[in-house]
Amino acid sequence: MMSRKNLLTSFTERKLTAVNSDPGSDLSPAVERNRSRGAFGAITRSIDELAEKAQAAKEIESRLLEGATVIELDPDMIDISFVSDRIGDDKETFEELVEAIRQRGQDSPILVRPHPGVIGRYMTVFGHRRARAAKVLGRPVKAVVKELDDRDHVIAQG
Fold this sequence. Notes:
By secondary structure, this protein is an alpha/beta fold. It is built from 6 helices and 5 strands.
């Protein structure tokens, strides 16, 4: 009987282990438990994940463009990304972009990576519309070439 005396205390006491401890948490234990439950918890986690991804994308883009060398590439050597572009394809705004590049030139470079499957070709990471506009105009596109894996490619694309 003595061994059962404290049998239920382990269920009522909150003990933190290395796995479930959070030394940086400012939330009370009750708030922390409720935060991770149900639909509210799922939404909160989704928002937190999106915020982390957005921040990671900003950091990667910033690092990619810091001190990067801009070169000119033949748009015919650039393939589209394996990820759909987040900006829709509006004919009118695309024509405006083409006209702006025709008049002023390309203001900012696109980001490409060496094509992972075809030597000598590139894959657009961001700047799909500028690459297409350069192709329409028959001129080279200003680009920064960076080695990226698929994960960083997706994050940088936004």
